[in-house]
Design brief:
Layout lengths: L1 H30 L2 H13 L15 H30 L5 H4 L2 H33 L11 H18 L2 H10 L5 H6 L1 H15 L4 H25 L4 H58 L12
Helix pairs in contact: 1-3, 2-3, 3-5, 3-6, 5-6, 5-10, 7-10, 9-10
Length: about 300
Amino acid sequence: MFDELKPHLVELRKRLGISVAVLFVMFFACFSFWEPILAFMIAPLESVLPTGSEVIFTKVQEPFFTALKVAFFSGFIISLPVIFWQFWLFIAPGLYENEKRLVIPFVLFATIMFLSGATFCYYIVVPLGFDFLVNFGSQLFKALPSIGEYVSFFTKLLFGFGLAFELPVITFFFAKLGFVTDRSLIEFFRYAIVIIFLVAALLTPPDLLTQFLMAGPLIILYGVSILVARAVNPAGEEDDDDDDGSDEEKTDANEEKNEDAKQDDNTNETNNDDIDDDDYDDYDDEDDDDIDDDWPKDTNRPILDF
């Protein structure tokens, strides 16, 4: 078994090695100008800070580790096309020739969807969410947010939205593998709504507005995923015929059972009638015999004396 998996593990190590190498190169490139990137990241926060508030750090090592986080996240965003490309090359041996040609659309579409989610989060969700969080209770407290905690929360939020917007891409692969169809996604829709709102509640700040801002696009993307599954792995007519055929067979079986039950009832009634007639005849014969036995032997004797 290990011999069969060994070529795949070697290929996986190769693709991961290339992805990690590109990520490190982009990390060091971004680390050289992490300050402008950080200024871009904290712009939504500074726009909602009350007068007299400012971003601070509370630990000696916090600015340095913040710079590392900023450089790593920026390098990851820039490396996304290469990461998606290496992922496609890893699964390409299991695809048909016409499917292997989709490498460029896949890399382009996956990158665009991730950046779309991150952009939507940066320009819409983050300002509204941080405006609520920072100004809540600002009359009683003075806001002094820590730069390290803000960057960690900011990167997790952007990564969550970017990953959530990959739903059509994930559906494409599941449909290719035959795990989902458009019908299965439609039938799962009611449960997907609950899961979407749970994910939105976990990834967004604790206010209803930002949760709905994440859940709304995800519901739309779920509809797009249904169309993707219909184009890649639609539910065939054979499934409909099978379902219809099974229903017809069940109906025929039920009708046959009803007919058999009726025949059994008729047979039972006929047998009961025969039994009743025989019993009646026997009863009459026995009564006649009893009357004959009790009838007086002397025919000259009157039956009644007056």
